[in-house]
Design brief:
Helix Hairpins, conserved putative lor/sdh protein from methanococcus maripaludis s2 fold, alpha+beta, single chain
């Protein structure tokens, strides 16, 4: 009985194995049915094109007024009055205030008296020397006495010149002590108030000329070789959407220690005084490109772990190619490809999700040569 039951079970198991489906045959068929080749339209693919890419160099910095004058007190004294306020426009030579100059004026009077005394002494020395000359001609005095008379005359003349020079210096001090605007412009800041005691060289006013402004920025050592003095620069100032045209005035001869950046100064015409010193500005310089470069739309370039790549269709399959990129044209959305592609490659012009390398892919029509990015839908 036990032997017959075992034989029956073996027979049933053999029949089941005979009619059971082979592993993998059904799943492969199902997979073939749900994974057709990916189809792309000509607008979704592109070939690399040859084009020139102008280099855009940007740097920023605050606007600076190079013609800024600081009015300082040339003598100690009491500030009697101020005739201008902050923000007021002044002309060159216009009085800004009045300071007590009693000390300087007394010094001028003292030195003027010294000049008069020296003039009297000179007249007396000239009279005595004339008399001694007549006596010497008659041999009434010795030649030594005549020489002494000549020396006294020369000393009197020198004393008069010294007194006159000191008087002129005192008058210059009085003239320079007057508070006048050294340049035409706007009073940027008033540092004192009337009645205040001021000392020599103390700051009193700051006068700013806004007719010409400068943008002081820095560029990298790898970009400065493309810049030259006199190049046109487009300057955008915060709060003003309209760009202003300037020019590069000077470039620093050496890089700053630690930053490896080189200073560049841009001159900006501001005769209408629409801009103000201290505003933040962005300067952009476009450098023409004489070479032809292989370019792709920026939307075709992807990045994974810092490595740029593109998706290509080769022999009916999707392949991901690592590429080395160069210049970028942000305005037109183009990127230079240095390595990793040939000119006849078929590249997906946009980024797609869930792409797998080795997947079947076809293009419905001929592939155009273009470098402009295109919108895409995966079919």
């Amino acid at each position: 009985m036990w032997v017959g039951g075992a034989i029956g079970l073996l027979v049933v198991a053999g029949v089941a194995l005979t009619f059971a489906p082979r592993p993998g045959s059904g799943s492969k068929g199902a997979k073939d049915k749900v994974a057709p080749p990916l189809e792309f339209t000509p607008a979704e693919v592109v070939r690399p094109a040859l084009a020139s890419l102008p280099q855009l160099i940007e740097f920023s910095g605050p606007l600076v007024a190079p013609r800024t004058a600081v009015v300082r007190a040339k003598t100690a004294g009491t500030l009697l009055s101020l005739k201008v306020a902050e923000g007021q426009r002044v002309k060159a030579g216009q009085p800004l205030g009045e300071i007590d100059l009693a000390d300087l004026q007394s010094r001028v009077a003292d030195r003027a008296a010294a000049v008069e005394s020296a003039q009297v002494a000179l007249v007396d020395a000239e009279r005595q020397h004339a008399a001694n000359t007549g006596l010497a001609s008659q041999n009434f005095i010795s030649s030594t006495a005549l020489q002494s008379s000549q020396a006294r005359l020369d000393a009197a003349r020198a004393q008069l010149k010294s007194a006159q020079a000191q008087l002129a210096m005192s008058r210059v001090g009085v003239r320079e002590a007057a508070l006048v605007a050294p340049i035409a412009g706007i009073v940027g800041k008033r540092h004192v108030v009337p009645g205040e005691k001021v000392s020599a060289e103390q700051q009193l006013f700051t006068v700013v000329d806004l007719s010409s402004l400068e943008v002081a920025g820095t560029v990298g050592t790898h970009e400065v070789s493309a810049l030259r003095p006199g190049m046109t620069v487009q300057v955008t100032v915060e709060g003003d959407a309209k760009p202003h045209e300037g020019r590069i005035d000077r470039i620093a001869p050496a890089a700053e220690p630690g930053t490896r950046a080189i200073g560049v100064v841009v001159v900006l015409d501001n005769r209408k005084e629409l801009l103000r010193a201290g505003q933040y500005a962005m300067a952009r310089v476009t450098v023409a490109d004489p070479a032809q470069r292989m370019v792709l739309p920026a939307t075709a370039i992807g990045s994974t772990a810092g490595q740029d790549h593109v998706w290509t269709i080769e022999n009916g399959e999707l392949l991901r190619r690592a590429v080395t990129t160069g210049r970028r044209d942000e305005a037109n959305g183009r990127v230079e490809v240095l390595k990793g592609l040939t000119h006849d490659a078929v590249v997906l012009a946009a980024r797609f999700d869930n792409l797998r390398e080795g997947s079947k892919a076809v293009v419905t029509q001929a592939v155009p040569v273009a470098s402009a990015p295109a919108s895409s839908n995966l079919k």
